[in-house]
Write a structure and sequence with these properties.
The chain is mainly alpha-helical. The protein has three domains: 246 residues, Orthogonal Bundle (Clc chloride channel); 232 residues, Orthogonal Bundle (Clc chloride channel); 166 residues, Roll (CBS-domain). The protein is built from 30 helices and twelve strands. Strands 3-5-6-9 form a four-stranded mixed β-sheet. A three-stranded mixed β-sheet has the order 4-7-8. Strands 10-11-12 form a three-stranded mixed β-sheet. A hairpin with a 2-residue loop joins strand 11 and strand 12. The longest helix has 42 residues. The radius of gyration is 32 Å and the shape is elongated.
Length: 780
């Protein structure tokens, strides 16, 4: 019946065609920068599943198809884990090599990093473990001199040159091939998972360019990390594999379940923390997270972590990035400096968010935003120029954090471990007592202080540029530096003043009391929590990242304190702040609605605005519909019995209506501009002289969500949040009065939520005895 022509009978009654009885491509899909209807997508998936289940009883082949459909979700998770783990391993290896390439090259195999090059050398000594004949710096390779002012200046110049080259390639590739590959990606991922459509953001080109430019951006030495962008990369992998299965490619709600699991896999490979990845997706990223998605996220994170472990990019036979092994427990008195580090993390998070948002807003509203390449080159040049003289800023941020986390054992050669040793000490290697700091430690403290100031300032201007840029590692670096400084200070206080009452009970002379590396780990967690406002997932990621399961309580104390302090200055984390800055339609489930208004106070237009554009169920012509679509930009139209009764029948989407009429004109003979459009179940009998009618009941939503005009706005907001509605119709006495959309609430909240006194509302109702039809739609 779908595409055939129907002839008129002798009595003049035409057979009404319903060409949408058969599936029609693009109907029920969404346009770019629109929000999806979660209830509609859920209903469609339920109908699809019911159809597959009923067919599975008909034949063995249909039963096999139903089993394949049931297992398709696990297959997608397996593919996501394999690809995201592989890409993460390749990125880690490439970053290590290209970062070291700025300083020198391995003569035996140029594709080896510094560490890999010296692994293969038999001439490396313990004291000079970082030096081997196979690895040469550029000055030594070019001039034959490894030391001296000339060699230093040449290495300095080539370091800056390589950094500029890497950053220029990164920003150029992003600008030319994939503009969506810039930034962290997490604010956009959060918005997409809440139901917003951004075509191309998770596309193949974005995946390819983001992977390549992420390596270039991190290798350039800029104050950014790869962890946030890896979440974007993993979600691109999820979107890629969704296209292989119609179950996910044709249902935006099901697709977002896969993307939630992909985000978990991204964090899993970014930190080597599969459980933390699942909790991160649940706490920070996902908008809709059913129990089924929890199990699949766990499986995807497991496969991704296993794949990364098989590649072994860190070369330590461990999955975690910063494995530590402390030999001293923490004491209750140390909670005071841990909480102070939490306060510092909250203050740093507030400072960073406000300063970075102010800078990004300036970038968007001034001429600066028109020159992204020049901005990246300038920031890279300044970063490389200031970073090279300080050994703690010259090395990669991951190496810096790893050194700050490490405990000082007998085999450590870092400046941070340059303590004055007691020649009469006869203790095991793993139980070295607290010692007075040597000149190397004090020198390192000055360098770390300068590195802290440098990281705080330069990260503000780096995050948000038109290159892939993560925030996890820079934030952890700031906290780790501050924590290590505090840890050394507490250690020296405990050594020199062990008779003080705060140290007397737990720090005896000659004992190993304080572990400065633990303070660095707690500070890193505090600063990351202050910026992102994470709590549970942050603590789990940190102890998975370091293997420090014993130190959960200090991490929890610092994370909670950091969040409390940061929330005192503003509830939004860095990702929510960038969502607001970019104007994305995102309803945060954690926001509280405090206005005491009703649905009638919010719906638009007002008294002097045009009435709501509606369709009638049996008296609107094709020409009327096309004119309405042309003259308005609404997302959809309520369908009423007639303009006199205004009784609501259903709601039809603009896109479905446009495609349906276009398809009918192409495939159905007799449909002309004067053809009547019917949304009714049964068609009336028409004279033979009348043009062929068009039945569009199949695209009509017969159960749109409605509220009364006296529904409190707090309830309406909860409905939009928890049910994921795209629009909500406001009725009075079963008549359609208005329509609210999700974007109406978000975009125009400050303007629309105006209180009205009961007297004014009664006066308004008396003046409008007939239930007026009014509508508002945002540009989305």
């Amino acid at each position: 019946r779908g595409d055939s022509c129907c002839c008129c009978s002798m009595n003049g009654a035409g057979n009404l065609m319903d060409f949408l009885d058969e599936p029609f491509p693009d109907v029920s899909t969404y346009e770019d920068f629109h929000t999806i209807d979660w209830l509609r997508e859920k209903s469609r998936d339920t109908d699809r599943h019911r159809k597959i289940t009923s067919k599975s009883k008909e034949s063995l082949w249909e039963l096999i198809k139903s089993l394949l459909d049931a297992w398709s979700g696990w297959v997608v998770m397996l593919l996501i884990g394999l690809l995201s783990g592989t890409l993460a391993g390749v990125i880690d290896l490439a970053v290590d090599w290209m970062t070291d390439l700025k300083e020198g090259v391995c003569l035996s195999a140029f594709w080896y990093s510094h560490e890999q090059c010296c692994w293969t050398s038999n001439e490396t000594t313990f004291d000079d473990r970082d030096k081997c004949p196979q690895w040469q710096k550029w000055a030594e390779l070019m001039t034959g001199h490894a030391e001296g002012a000339g060699a230093y200046v040449l290495n300095y110049f080539l370091y800056i040159l390589w950094a500029l080259l890497f950053s220029f390639l990164a920003v150029s590739l992003v600008r030319v091939f994939a503009p969506y590959a810039c930034g962290s990606g997490i604010p956009e991922i959060k918005t997409i998972l809440s139901g917003f459509i951004i075509r191309g953001y998770l596309g193949k080109w974005t995946l390819l360019i983001k992977t390549v430019t992420l390596v270039l951006a991190v290798s350039s030495g800029l104050s950014l990390g790869k962890e946030g962008p890896l979440v974007h990369v993993a979600c691109c992998c999820g979107n890629l594999f969704c296209s292989l299965f119609s179950k996910y490619s044709k249902n935006e709600g099901k697709r977002r379940e896969v993307l939630s699991a992909a985000a978990a896999a991204g964090v899993s490979v970014a930190f080597g923390a599969p459980i933390g990845g699942v909790l991160f997706s649940l706490e920070e990223v996902s908008y809709y997270f059913p129990l089924k998605t929890l199990w699949r996220s766990f499986f995807a994170a497991l496969v991704a972590a296993f794949t990364l472990r098989s590649i072994n990019p860190f070369g330590n036979s461990r999955l975690v990035l910063f494995y530590v092994e402390y030999h001293t427990p923490w004491y209750m008195a140390e909670l005071v400096p841990f909480i102070l580090l939490g306060v510092f993390g909250g203050l740093w998070g507030t400072l960073f968010i406000r300063a970075n948002i102010a800078w990004c807003r300036r970038r968007k509203t001034t001429q600066l935003g028109k020159y992204p390449v020049l901005e990246v080159i300038a920031v890279t040049g300044i970063t490389a120029l200031l970073a090279y003289p300080n050994p703690y800023t010259r090395r990669s941020t991951s190496e810096l954090i790893s050194e700050l986390f490490n405990d000082c054992g007998a085999l450590e050669s870092s400046q941070l471990c340059d303590y004055v040793n007691n020649p009469n000490m006869s203790r095991p290697v793993d139980d070295i007592p607290d010692r007075p700091a040597g000149p190397g430690v004090y020198n390192a403290l000055w360098q770390l202080t300068l590195a802290l100031i440098f990281k705080i300032v330069i990260t503000i201007f780096t995050f948000g540029m038109k290159i892939p840029s993560g925030l996890f590692i820079p934030s952890m670096a700031v906290g780790a530096i501050a924590g290590r400084i505090v840890g050394i200070a507490v250690e020296q206080m405990a050594y020199h003043h062990h008779d003080w009452i705060i140290f007397k009970n737990w720090c005896r002379p000659g004992a190993d009391c304080v572990t400065p590396g633990l303070y660095a780990m707690v500070g890193a967690a505090a600063c990351l929590g202050g910026v992102t406002r994470m709590t549970v997932s942050l603590v789990v990621i940190m102890f998975e990242l370091t293997g420090g399961l014993e130190y959960i309580v200090p991490l929890m104390a610092a994370a909670v304190t950091s969040k409390w302090v940061a929330d005192a200055f503003g509830k939004e984390g860095i990702y929510e702040s960038h969502i607001l800055l970019n104007g994305y339609p995102y309803l945060d489930v954690r926001d509280e609605f405090t206005h005491r208004t009703l649905a009638t106070d919010v719906m638009r237009p007002r008294r002097n605005d045009p009435p709501l554009a509606v369709l009638t169920q049996d008296s609107t012509t094709v020409e009327d519909v096309e004119t309405l679509i042309k003259d308005t930009d609404y997302n959809g139209f309520p369908v009423v019995v007639s303009r006199e009764s205004e009784r609501l029948i259903g709601f039809v989407q603009r896109r479905d209506l446009t495609l349906a009429i276009k398809n009918a004109r192409q495939k159905q003979d007799g449909v002309v501009s004067s053809s009547v459009v019917y949304f009714t179940e049964d068609a009336p009998q028409l004279p033979a002289s009348n043009p062929q009618p068009l039945k569009l009941r199949r695209i009509l939503n017969l159960s749109p969500f409605t509220v009364t005009d006296h529904t409190p706005m707090e309830t309406v907001v909860d409905i939009f949040r928890k049910l994921g509605l795209r629009q909500c119709l406001v009725t009075r006495r079963q008549k359609n009065k208005n329509k609210q959309t999700k974007n109406t609430y978000i975009t125009h909240l400050d303007h629309l939520l105006r209180k009205k006194t009961s007297k004014k509302r009664e006066q308004y109702n008396k003046q409008h005895n007939r239930d007026d039809l009014c509508e508002y739609n945002s540009k989305y």
